[in-house]
Amino acid sequence: MTTTTSSRSTGVGRVLIAVYGLLALAATGRSVFQLFDDFDRAPVAYSLSALAAVVYIVATVALIMPGDVWYRVAWITIGFELLGVLVVGLLSIFDPVLFPAKTVWSMFGRGYGFVPLVLPILGMLWLYRHRARPTAAASAEPRAV
Amino acid sequence: MIEWFTWAQIAVAVVAGLLAVALGLFGRTPDDLTMGATALVTVLLVVQVVVSLLAPAFGNTATGSALEFWVYLVTALIIPPLAIVWGLVDRTRWSTAILGVACLAVAVMLYRMYQIWFVQVA
């Protein structure tokens, strides 16, 4: 196998990767500012911001890289994002005291135009449509058996 | 930050963004128009850096956190050049859409910068 680009990084998937990269950049920028500015004010929210930023970076890389392992990493990170935005979104509405400061996932990502809520769903659809097909993988290899 | 300049800059970024997203969806590969519009957004960001560096010397200081403002501005300045490089390397219509997404992201970030500089709630 000498394929250099994965099927996930073609066509409209490139837009998905670009938006993921953008969100990774935005989340990292905010989290760096929060960590340096006043971490003690809201350690839970700020730690979560940092964690979210790391997850977005890993998800972006996983979407670009070819191979089964990265495909699985993409599923895990994108699944984690969806879980994060749903759990933190609900908690930030029902228990605002827990999240005195904004995170990328607060209020279902309202501060980011709900992109954090929509993106993992689009990402999962994309991954599902581009799952490895056993026949395609087999035909690329010399026929054994 | 100068109020009218910032609004003009946001308007340019929104128009450039919508134009490139639309042209990308219509199947246009990155061309002088969309790349030029994104380059214009970049140039205006550089002007914004100069303006915001000089403004405090004239008594025009950020009402909010200057650190947060600069994190936004520096991050925003990175985005359109990356999209332009992407558009040069990857000659597909999706690169045109990415140019648009980059410009729209810059517009949103400029609006946040505007709030940090001028508007403080509570």
From TrEMBL, chain A:
| TM region positions | 12-33, 45-66, 73-99, 111-128
**UniProt keyword annotations, A-Z:** Membrane, Transmembrane, Transmembrane helix
Q: Which domain of life is it from?
A: Bacteria
Q: What is this protein called?
A: Integral membrane protein
TrEMBL record, chain B:
Bilayer-crossing regions: 6-26, 33-57, 69-89, 96-114
Q: Which UniProt keywords apply?
A: Membrane, Transmembrane, Transmembrane helix
Which protein, by its recorded name, is this?
A: Lysylphosphatidylglycerol synthetase-like protein (DUF2156 family)
Q: Which domain of life is it from?
A: Bacteria
